[in-house]
Design a protein that fits this description.
The complex is a heterodimer of chains A (about 150) and B (about 270).
Chain A lengths: L2 H24 L13 H7 L8 H16 L8 H5 L3 H5 L11 H7 L37
Chain B lengths: L6 H33 L14 E6 L8 H9 L11 E8 L12 E4 L18 E9 L8 H5 L5 E3 L5 E3 L9 H5 L6 E2 L6 E2 L5 H4 L6 H5 L5 E5 L8 H8 L2 E2 L12 E3 L7
Parallel strand pairs in B: 1-11
Antiparallel strand pairs in B: 1-9, 2-3, 2-4, 5-6, 7-8, 10-11
The chains are: A mainly alpha (about 150), B alpha+beta (about 270).
Chain lengths: ~150, ~270
């Protein structure tokens, strides 16, 4: 084989080889596991910590309260919608849930022309101004009087 | 320059190079196995991305604009303080047409103070001047043909097999192309990480069989979440499709959003 051909072959092998080595080192190992991206990203995003525990976690200890709620008008509400995020409390019951303020009721029930008609609304300026909502309404059973 | 190449040495060199190339896949497999041990710690076990197709539906007839979803999303996903939202609520105020204007509809006013997180102030129009007013929750539209995925120069944003459109924060270079590309304004550049951020459908929750945080706290079930591959006809998401006439946002763009809306007006973009 003539020496110039040998040099050409060696050069080609060297260039292609170094490209392949560089590609192998730079491409993430899970690239292409699901598609044209790093497959491990799915696992990493899935392993982020949670803040909201979900009603099922609440039901483990507070099933009675959930039963009362399920029979009342507020049955569609999640515990954490009013009481705030509860994963920390679910992991360790010594960690207390946030404190509720009655202004929370107004967040949903203040009258607004943008709100759907079927939704019960009051005008806080005329509806027993200065009184606490819980004087007349039980949050878990809004139709009952305390 | 004298280069003495014998038959023996040439075969040796070429053979060595070939052996090196052939051993690369094996080396990569080992590297992948080692990395997997570190990566999967704390991740949900037994979740198979190709066995699900998650989707969200929005019933605007039911949204009361309380902003609990926006607040829950911020807390759950550690979204930075300020004007950064993975989901937000818009209030639409469509005025009655002026008498003699010859128009079918009046002007449209849209606002979303703090993303609707702290509720909405009294509208700027009097009640009798309003023809229609309603709330529209917004989030990633989970496009079938995502413009954001198409423009990403580094493959950091992608359509996951289970329907979520996700961002790989380790590979995002923060160029912001995707933020310009998204026609729904669903993306922002995080001031903390300097990478693009958006709704991930609460990927860390749905892979653990939980609902996304916004769906969890919604008091009126205006947000409906489900798995199209594993849902019976009486599940909320299928009921939502059966009971409502639904529409997508900006259908003329050809993005084919998978998030469908019920009860919105033509003014909604």
């Amino acid at each position: 084989m003539p020496p110039q051909a040998v040099r050409l072959i060696l050069l080609t092998v060297g260039i292609v080889g170094s490209y392949l080595v560089a590609r192998a080192l730079l491409t993430p190992s899970s690239f292409g596991a699901y598609g044209w991206y790093r497959g491990d990203a799915l696992q990493e995003l899935a392993s982020l910590p949670m803040t909201y525990a979900g009603n099922d976690a609440c039901a483990e200890c507070h099933s009675e309260t959930l039963k009362t709620l399920a029979a009342a008008d507020h049955k569609g509400l999640a515990c954490e919608g009013c009481h705030g995020p509860g994963q920390a409390h679910a992991d360790n019951p010594d960690v207390k849930m946030g404190i509720l303020h009655y202004s929370h009721c107004v967040r949903c029930h203040e009258a607004s022309p943008s709100r759907p008609k079927w939704h019960k609304q009051i005008d806080p300026k005329t509806h027993f101004t200065g009184e606490k909502c819980t004087e007349c309404h039980v949050p878990h059973q809004p139709k009952e009087v305390p | 320059m004298s280069l003495r190449v014998t038959r023996r040495s040439l075969i040796g060199k070429v053979g060595g190079a070939l052996a090196g190339l052939l051993s690369l896949p094996a080396a990569r497999t080992v590297k992948a196995a080692v990395q997997k041990v570190f990566v999967t710690a704390g991740a949900p076990k037994g979740y198979q991305p190709d066995k699900h197709k998650w989707v969200m539906g929005i019933d605007a007839n039911r949204c009361i604009g309380c902003g609990l979803c926006v607040e829950a999303c911020k807390r759950e996903n550690r979204v930075p303080e300020g004007p950064y939202f993975r989901t937000w609520i818009e209030r639409y105020l469509i005025a009655k047409p002026k008498a003699g204007s010859g128009e079918a509809r009046g002007a449209t006013l849209v606002d979303s103070p703090h993303g609707g997180m702290r509720g909405f102030p009294a509208p700027s129009l009097a009640r009798e001047e309003i023809q229609h007013s309603f709330f529209v929750p917004k989030l990633c539209n989970l496009c079938r043909h995502s413009p954001c995925v198409q423009v990403c120069p580094v493959g950091a944003t992608f359509d996951a097999p289970d329907g979520a459109v996700l961002i790989d924060p380790k590979y995002c270079i923060g160029c912001g192309f995707c933020i310009q590309a998204c026609p729904y304004g669903c993306r922002f550049l995080s001031p903390l990480t300097h990478t693009a951020d958006k709704c991930s459908l609460c990927y860390h929750r749905i892979t653990r069989r939980r609902k996304p945080a916004c769906v969890e706290v919604c008091p009126t079930q205006a947000r409906i979440f489900g798995d199209l591959l594993n849902s019976s006809p009486d599940e909320p998401i299928q009921q939502f499709y059966q009971r409502n006439r639904v529409q997508a946002l900006k259908p003329h763009l050809g993005t084919e959003p998978r998030v469908l809306y019920a009860g919105i007006d033509k003014e909604v973009r």
